[in-house]
Design goal:
alpha/beta, Rossmann fold, single chain, binds magnesium ion, binds adenosine-5'-triphosphate
């Protein structure tokens, strides 16, 4: 069965779940879209939309589910921040109009902005091009206790750069370093880099928002027709669409070669935005639950000090 072909029967009443049960459900749910070992990965086995139709009567349930996830995420982020040891890097990659921006906005809506850092990576600047491809991303890795979000990332180096090889020619690499093995070499460098980050307490999870070509067309037309959305659209986006097949091949090869148990890819069905957001928040809860998160405990000396301060405050006139 293709991944994510969910039946609508036996819905779990999530409102009544304990925090632990909610996280167990989130893990089970997000696992369907998780690629931990990419060896046998084939993109065609993953759907862009789920098999059940959500009617208008399901809207409150969908909203409620996302809200519960967002609340749980906010609570866990508070501990992540207080503990100040782990950090989480969320990477978003997708074709245009797949909903990266909206997903980030909604999923992170409950999170304390102090503990969250978002960076969008556009075409590299002249200064970026004077460095290795990781350079500009290294500067924006999340500090301990933070959630970092990369809206596009170093993965563009095996996506847009692979689809448009003239970009690679412009990268000023020494000629003898550019061989037909370059993509395999980049995959290896990325795997090693993410392993290195993991060993330093920076956990990386990656989301590919898997959109159908038809749904992209609908969203592009909406961006042209709706004046408030005109700013989101450019002719360049439409040009990239004409390379759809090459992009899908590049995504498939990327996921195959850079999915690891510790830094998995989630192939998120993205044709329904609300569903995609629930998958994403579930995967984040899963990743945070793997960390041994707890509020720092005050030492005996610290407790004595706090009690002394309290006593002094209470004694004030
Ligand atoms: P939206 O989904 O709203 O269109 P976006 O992330 O596509 O947002 P844009 O400003 O439209 O933002 O596009 C950024 C462009 O920069 C993308 O086409 C992307 O492929 C390109 N880009 C990002 N990193 C690199 C890179 N390393 N080399 C070349 N191009 C890159
Ligand atoms: Mg764009």
């Amino acid at each position: 069965m293709a991944k994510g072909n969910q039946k609508k029967s036996n819905p779990v009443n999530i409102s009544t779940l304990s925090k632990k049960e909610l996280i167990e459900q989130a893990k089970k749910f997000s696992n369907q879209y998780c690629v931990g070992n990419g060896d046998k990965f084939r993109l065609e086995e993953y759907k862009t939309s789920v098999n059940f139709d959500l009617g208008p009567e399901d809207k409150p349930l969908v909203k409620k589910t996302l809200q519960l996830g967002v609340n749980a995420l906010a609570a866990m982020q508070d501990i992540l921040y207080a503990q100040d040891k782990w950090s989480l890097l969320l990477i978003f990659q997708a074709m245009d109009a797949a909903g990266k921006d909206g997903a980030i906005k909604h999923v992170m809506s409950g999170v304390n902005p102090q503990g969250c850092q978002v960076f969008s990576f556009k075409a590299p600047s002249a200064e970026d091009m004077d460095h290795d491809f990781m350079w500009r991303c290294l500067k924006h890795l999340p500090e301990r206790g933070r959630i970092g979000i990369f809206n596009r990332s170093y993965y563009e180096e095996v996506l847009v750069v692979r689809v448009h090889e003239q970009i690679l020619e412009g990268q000023k690499l020494p000629k003898k370093l550019v061989s037909k093995n370059i993509w395999k070499e980049r995959f290896k460098d990325i795997r090693n880099f993410e392993e290195y980050l993991g060993r330093n307490g920076i956990i990386v999870i990656k989301f590919f928002l898997h959109l159908s070509k038809d749904e992209q067309k609908k969203r592009f037309i909406e961006r042209v027709d709706n004046p408030d959305k005109n700013w989101k659209f450019s002719a360049a986006d439409a040009r990239e669409r004409s390379h759809w097949k090459e992009y899908m091949n590049a995504y498939e090869d990327m996921i195959k070669n850079t999915s690891t148990e510790k830094s998995p890819w989630y192939v998120v069905p993205a044709d329904k935005k609300s569903y995609a957001r629930i998958v994403i928040v579930s995967a984040i809860l899963h990743a945070l639950d793997e960390m041994d998160l707890e509020y720092p405990k005050a030492s005996k000396e610290k407790m004595e000090e706090l009690q002394a301060v309290k006593k002094a405050l209470l004694a004030e006139q």
